């Protein structure tokens, strides 16, 4: 008896997916539940598990093919197999997609890697840790000799290095990012206003409570929670910043779903923190940390990435001193955080060194006036510079 391997139901508004990679060859034995093939959509990677135990008998669509929901990807031939208690799932079935691609590209034996994910799942970070240990296990003298021999050999073979080019197709995620950024530039009247924030109070607060916070909530106290909470307060005072344009209408949202930009190996993703006005500092930091892990693992769902009324991006983690972020449609504004740098400032007539951060608000000038944008950004500055306001709501 044969069983079809079908494309699963796709997220709403996603019409098709691209076959990314098969993890079994024709004739290979498969175990029910292990991942057979990855499908890439605009935002997420979908794993397609084996519906039954058996043999992979046919593959209808190879890597690069575009498929739609319910289409047959391949066929499994049902055979009598030993019980699952005697045959555990293969290691590949507990490797995350991003980690599996790295393992395949580098030719690593995944059995040597210790997984730290749920139920021992191997994550990309586990692969990187394994590689670091392997590199550190090579004696320094041997490593230097290896590098020098390799360099000399390379020069002997080709004194004048060839100028080469490589053409690589965009991933669906990268293509979608490009499409949305161009859409934002073409449809919105984007303007950016900039201010600077004295981070002294927040840094002192973090230094005082970070250990107790991490011990209690098992997550580190970052800067993002302060800015999310400050943004909620500012959005409540200036509802137009939380609104969206829909043809000739303005849609005002009475909820605060804030997108937090996260860089992943596949590109920038913006998962959504829902109902931020109801979340504590700890829950915000926990959810952001979980989003970051899922982004590295390629495990974010489409629901995690849809919606949102406002966004925050932090270029400071990469060293950016100042930038003008692009709005994430259909939202009307985005806040950009940047690197914290010590600068000489004049405070109460005295020069002193303070830890300063530039912040930028890009906004759609079609519905947001400069006055509202400037006052919104100043409200965030005011709150972050005196974070006790978050408790007193003043």
Keywords:
394 residues, alpha+beta, OB fold (Dihydrolipoamide Acetyltransferase, E2P), Dihydrolipoamide Transferase, Chloramphenicol Acetyltransferase, 7-stranded mixed sheet, 4-stranded antiparallel sheet, 19 strands
Layout: helices, strands, pairs:
Layout: E1 2-6, E2 17-22, E3 29-30, E4 35-40, E5 45-49, E6 54-59, E7 66-67, E8 72-77, H1 97-106, H2 124-136, H3 140-157, H4 172-187, E9 190-198, H5 200-217, H6 224-237, E10 244-246, E11 249-251, E12 258-260, E13 262-264, E14 267-269, E15 272-273, H7 281-297, H8 302-305, E16 310-314, E17 333-337, E18 340-347, E19 350-364, H9 370-385, H10 388-392
Parallel strand pairs: 12-16, 16-17
Antiparallel strand pairs: 1-8, 2-4, 2-7, 3-6, 4-5, 6-8, 9-19, 10-11, 12-15, 13-14, 17-19, 18-19
Structure description:
The protein has 394 residues and is an alpha+beta fold. The protein has 3 domains: 1-94, OB fold (Dihydrolipoamide Acetyltransferase, E2P) (Beta Barrel); 95-152, E3-binding domain (Dihydrolipoamide Transferase, Irregular); 174-392, 2-Layer Sandwich (Chloramphenicol Acetyltransferase). The protein has helices at residues 97-106, 124-136, 140-157, 172-187, 200-217, 224-237, 281-297, 302-305, 370-385, 388-392; strands spanning 2-6, 17-22, 29-30, 35-40, 45-49, 54-59, 66-67, 72-77, 190-198, 244-246, 249-251, 258-260, 262-264, 267-269, 272-273, 310-314, 333-337, 340-347, 350-364. It starts with a strand and ends with a helix. Mean pLDDT is 84; it is low at 81-87 and 138-148.
